[in-house]
Amino acid sequence: xxxxxxxxxxxxxxxxxxxxxxxxxxxxxxxxxxxxxxxxxxxxxxxxxxxxxxxxxxxxxxxxxxxxxxxxxxxxxxxxxxxxxxxxxxxxxxxxxxxxxxxxxxxxxxxxxxxxxxxxxxxxxxxxxxxxxxxxxxxxxxxxxxxxxxxxxxxxxxxxxxxxxxxxxxxxxxxxxxxxxxxxxxxxxxxxxxxxxxxxxxxxxxxxxxxxxxxxxxxxxxxxxxxxxxxxxxxxxxxxxxxxxxxxxxxxxxxxxxxxxxxxxxxxxxxxxxxxxxxxxxxxxxxxxxxxxxxxxxxxxxxxxxxxxxxxxxxxxxxxxxxxxxxxxxxxxxxxxxxxxxxxxxxxxxxxxxxxxxxxxxxxxxxxxxxxxxxxxxxxxxxxxxxxxxxxxxxxxxxxxxxxxxxxxxxxxxxxxxxxxxxxxxxxxxxxx
Length: 433
Description:
Elements: H1 3-26, H2 31-52, H3 58-90, H4 94-105, H5 111-114, H6 125-139, H7 146-157, H8 162-168, H9 173-190, H10 199-221, H11 228-246, H12 253-266, H13 269-272, H14 292-304, H15 313-323, H16 331-347, H17 351-365, H18 367-377, H19 383-393, H20 398-411, H21 415-427
Helix pairs in contact: 1-2, 1-3, 1-6, 2-3, 6-7, 7-9, 7-10, 8-9, 10-11, 10-12, 11-12, 12-14, 12-15, 14-15, 15-16, 16-17, 17-18, 18-19, 19-20, 20-21
């Protein structure tokens, strides 16, 4: 791999590990320092490797440089706190007070952290995993808003840059920076520590962790971003984080169900877009492109989730996703899907789940009944709503099918969706039979 490709690849996998360990070492409120040190490590790599070539073990090289950068920083801060700050405090006048205040405001590490210079910065695989897991639970503290939880997870746990996060959320860098800044301020105010929560908190915090992973996956799977490689990467990052939860003491049936759900969905990635980048609807997908290995793994974790007495939305959605990986288009399959949607809507109603249910209903009881129930939802402004109505009216009422597809086309936001919808319009029969 060329140097130009290697460093971005290593940044994606190793930056998050270095930041998590340094944050745990310094304290959550010094997140910017951890990020700066990690970024400086990769800048040094780009400069050094460009002149001297790539080392035999690039990852070990990065870890060594990161440790040295951190130790040097701690030494400087220790000198500042032990020798310079006392002198500033002893001087009269507002200038000295302002200087000391500026030092504190700049995020200088206090004496407690600075005194840990000799502590080894542990970048072993086990400590990296522990640090990332503890960081995930810290990020999902109830004081931090859900949007900020997802943003911080992308930044710290997944190694995404600000521009990439903005792309994922279809917003701008300024909005992302403000959101992350507010979250970091909340971390300082609440004095949130990087550690696993106590037994009394772990259940409620785990719910937030799973929700964050779920939202992260959905952001990738349903993303309107034109960056399809980023879209897939978001999903696989969510899967990676869920694996971490499952392999920890926080393993629960709900976590297994969520992982199963994501694996089933990811198994159909390659069939969702054709070679021209056009969106392929479920009924037209080439099932030979479905990933059988991911389907098998999804089934394994779905079986593991079938214990305990709690039936979560992840269980029900994983069940639906399982049946969507069954290639035979049988009435029995769609009856199972319909029953699962009925349970899901009773457990946690959402308009999109209700809309998706009508497709299953059409497969079981016919299009006329499905049309009546779909139209009662009145999801004006939602292009999926009109696309589904266009699908349901195809073969029933050509004019209405055409009108709904055109409404969906007007509301859609990506070229892939627009091409797929235009194709649907072009393929409508001249007249209904």
